[in-house]
Amino acid sequence: MLMAITRFSYFILVLLCLSLLHLVTSFPSANGQIDYNYNYNYYDRSCPSLGMIVKYGVWAAFKNDTRIAASLLRLHFHDCFVNGCDASILLDDTIDFRGEKNALPNRNSARGYEVIESIKADVEKACPSTVSCVDILALAARESVLLSGGPYYPLSLGGLDGLTASEKAANEQLPSPFEPLENITAKFTSKGLDIKDVVVLSGAHTIGFAQCFAFKRRLFDFKGTGKPDPTLDSSAVANLQGMCPNKDASNSKLAPLDSVSTYRFDNAYYVNLVNRTALLESDQALMGDSKTAAMVTAYSSNSYLFSADFASSMVKMSNIGILTGSNGQIRKQCGSVN
Ligand code: HEM
Ligand SMILES: *[C@@H]1O[C@H](CO)[C@@H](O)[C@H](O)[C@H]1NC(C)=O
Ligand SMILES: *[C@@H]1O[C@H](CO)[C@@H](O)[C@H](O)[C@H]1NC(C)=O
Ligand SMILES: *[C@@H]1O[C@H](CO)[C@@H](O)[C@H](O)[C@H]1NC(C)=O
Description:
CATH class of the domain at 195-309: Mainly Alpha
Radius of gyration: 21 Å
CATH topology of the domain at 195-309: Peroxidase, domain 2
Number of strands: 2
Distance between the termini: 65 Å
CATH architecture of the domain at 195-309: Orthogonal Bundle
Bound molecules: protoporphyrin IX containing FE, 2-acetamido-2-deoxy-beta-D-glucopyranose
CATH superfamily of the domain at 195-309: Peroxidase, domain 2
Oligomer: single chain
Structural class: mainly alpha
Strand content: under 5%
Strand order of the largest sheet: 1-2
Order of helices and strands: HHHHHHHHEHEHHHH
């Protein structure tokens, strides 16, 4: 009996220690100290209607344009990968800097800015100068994943908006579909993410579209061979050649990243990879390495595993380089600093 009680209290002690550890490791601030203001319930008192406003804003945009879910998710990724999650991607060019909107990976490609600006305007009406654009973007991305049938994940809120943006940094730090897996992985590890996050977060390509220029070289003369990319299924080649005739005029035409369930956030992306029908070279390349291929195969047959892992990788991504204190501010409009 005594033995049982001792064991039980030992169990409780371990549990307490673990949760304390969790608290300590969950909310690191920029200077390495614990910032207890940076947490899941950050706006519960200061802006209780925030959740509903974001939910409504994303839902209304999604009703008009289903693709917006994909676009908002990508916008959040492109924010976090360039000098951290600081809403820098939302800033327009100024006389002091050339921003990220015109960087190669974003120009004529990133979309959803107006949706974020309109949600921000509604949030400002309800709770002026209280909620950062970083948090609105992260919440809108999460809402987009949910609306598309993907998982919910807890976001730590309270990060601030950055004061500047950099076109050069965006060109250097965002991954390109034409670079090899090693290079893409290096970009992820430089952000504190790992190879598993590369595989898991690439699963975001289960929704949304790419323009022909992003994959067209696979269809005709792949790397000077005069033939299509051998890692692309031949009927997919034929189908995509029809969508993207080998003329520059087709460069901005759209093809679904996941042709099986284009608007559904599921694990079909991985099934496609196994089936050699991924759209981007960088997607199909995940099958060209034994370690990543094993993960792809696992996700292709287990959608619950993918959902759970996607949720935790998104939490990691949403925490990259969060600004606190005097390094940031709460913008009044997302397109410009105050
Ligand atoms: C791993 C390296 C990645 C590369 C090389 C890459 C590349 C691309 C490219 C080339 C496009 C098409 C853009 C266009 O044609 O306009 C695209 C679209 C997209 N990407 Fe990625 N991406 C990567 C990772 C990610 C991650 C981590 C996420 C989110 C977590 C993401 C989410 C999306 C979404 C949702 C779209 C569709 C956007 C829309 O339809 O508006 N991507 N990506
Ligand atoms: C609806 O979506 C289209 C893009 O498909 C966009 O151009 C238009 O501005 C949207 N309208 C509203 C009211 O949001
Ligand atoms: C990959 O990274 C290496 C080393 O940084 C670089 O030299 C090479 O140009 C990169 N390849 C591509 C296709 O970007
Ligand atoms: C994957 O490929 C197999 C064999 O080609 C096919 O039967 C199956 O329908 C494909 N799955 C999807 C989801 O396209």
